[in-house]
Write a structure and sequence with these properties.
It is built from 11 helices and 8 strands. By secondary structure, the chain is of the alpha/beta class. It has 2 domains: about 180 residues, HAD superfamily/HAD-like (Rossmann fold, 3-Layer(aba) Sandwich), CATH 3.40.50; about 60 residues. The chain has a 5-stranded parallel sheet, sandwiched between helices. Strands 6-7-8 form a 3-stranded parallel sheet, with helices on one face. Strand 1, helix 2 and strand 2 form a beta-alpha-beta unit. Helix 8 runs parallel beside helix 10. The termini are far apart.
């Protein structure tokens, strides 16, 4: 696994020391005198081929690395906003013998040369026959990236170009943005929690969400707010950013969900109480 040093980026800082279990009882810090502004995301995780650079199948040649349009500028906006960056990428060509570990390192080094440093690289070298827990759509690399960056998956957002990226993010409890390419299947686009036309637009979406949560609240804070999402587990998971935004201006958040969303609801931060009710739809 190739993990280049990234001295140019901020050192990972945990924001969950007061309440270590961010997966269940994490709170969004309220804005007030002497309080830190709430933070929606600590990190952005990015697929490599098709998202950061043009997809050249099983590429072992650094000279073939071509960033997607606007990639460097988009990434620099995230860095300037204080977000930590990681690459999470399936590279089964290593297991298939189509390139060597040295060639993989050379390609990734070229990516950093063109796009700037990343705080973590998470690479699955296996093919689909291995049954590993790291190859997307499994959530292993998403969780590993969060740990490496000193945060938790529910404070990360993943940007990718296929359904496997979206599934891996959802399974880990992370938010996700799909940036389709010509090879993205229509069903994957339809199932994605959020779709943007390109990487620059995805970054704009991420920063807009972060700004919405970080904006100071004016007037009285809400008391107890009821959030209802009686849907499947995937639908409940993608409610996470909205719940964090609600929690930023509320003293207490109650989540109403159905039996199908029970396990996913338990992963969401910012929820003080869960009510499970079998609604008829």
């Amino acid at each position: 696994m190739f993990t280049p040093r990234a001295g140019g980026n901020p050192r990972p800082v945990r924001r969950d020391q007061v309440k270590p279990d961010q997966r269940r009882s994490g709170r969004v810090e309220p804005v007030g005198p002497g309080a830190m502004a709430p933070v929606l995301y600590d990190a952005v995780l990015l697929d490599r081929d098709g998202t950061l650079i043009e997809d050249v199948p099983y590429n072992g040649d650094p000279d073939k690395v071509r960033p997607v349009p606007g990639a460097r500028e988009a990434l620099d906006r995230l860095r300037a906003a204080g977000l930590r960056l990681a690459v999470v990428t399936n590279q089964s060509g290593l297991a298939r013998g189509l390139f060597t570990a040295a060639q993989l390192r050379a390609v990734n080094a070229r990516v950093e040369e063109l796009l700037g440093p990343f705080d973590s690289w998470q690479i699955c070298p296996h093919d689909e026959r291995a049954g590993c827990g790291c190859r997307k759509p499994a959530p292993g690399m998403v969780r590993a990236a969060a740990r490496a960056l000193g945060t938790t998956a529910d404070r990360c957002v993943l940007v990718g170009d296929i359904g496997a990226d979206m599934t891996a993010a959802g399974a880990a409890g992370a938010a996700a943005v799909l940036v389709p390419t010509a090879t993205t299947r229509p069903a994957e686009v339809a199932a994605a929690p959020c779709v943007r036309a390109d990487l620059s637009a995805a970054v704009e979406e991420i920063l807009a969400r972060a700004a919405l949560v970080a904006a100071p609240t004016e007037g009285r804070r809400a008391g107890t707010v009821l959030v209802a999402r009686s849907d499947s587990a995937g639908d409940v998971l993608v409610t996470g950013p909205a719940i964090r935004a609600v929690a930023a201006g509320a003293d207490r958040v109650v989540l109403l969900h159905g039996p199908r969303g029970r396990d996913a609801a338990a992963l969401l931060p910012g929820v003080d109480e869960h009510i499970e009710w079998p609604l008829p739809w």
